[in-house]
């Protein structure tokens, strides 16, 4: 069976406390429902939730969403540090892919939704990001910037799609729901296979626009 590892990596810094964290925690059950109730998608998708600030915590290890009743809540505190988030994500992906392949599955290139509302406070996070995207199973990263996030940083983090919030009335949770629905449609449409060497994967045909967000050109450096 072909499996798509799907990671939500969400900023949990102190500036997220309030409406943003609340909106994300309300969105998690809807993301759960969006993926787990479609038999085709639930069969192919595994989900992981990572929250980060000064450190990064794996709040929900990679799981079949149809096997759980609820997802853990995001919290807030600390500074906006990116490096540990990318290192934790890389460790997760490497371990998850090894486990899935050991179970006899083929693995699509992982997809990451990365959401931040601030500017990184840690020096050297770019190296951790480089190691992540250049790894054998380096993920496709869709980055969302909200609040005081820096568009240049968001475009550097993303390697597939980058967005900045333009309309504060549209919550990041709504944007993620839009993309979860789009990702679901993409998986349903996909009938491609993945080569034995782990390269490639299905064509991720997600939407190029999100209501309330502007598209940011990717940093190609």
UniProtKB/TrEMBL annotation:
Cross-referenced SUPFAM superfamilies: vWA-like (SSF53300)
PROSITE patterns assigned: VWFA
Pfam families per the UniProt record, alphabetical: VWA (PF00092)
Residue span, VWFA domain: 5-183
SMART domains: VWA (SM00327)
Highest taxon in the source lineage: Bacteria
Listed name of the protein: Uncharacterized conserved protein YegL, contains vWA domain of TerY type
Biological source species: Actinacidiphila glaucinigra
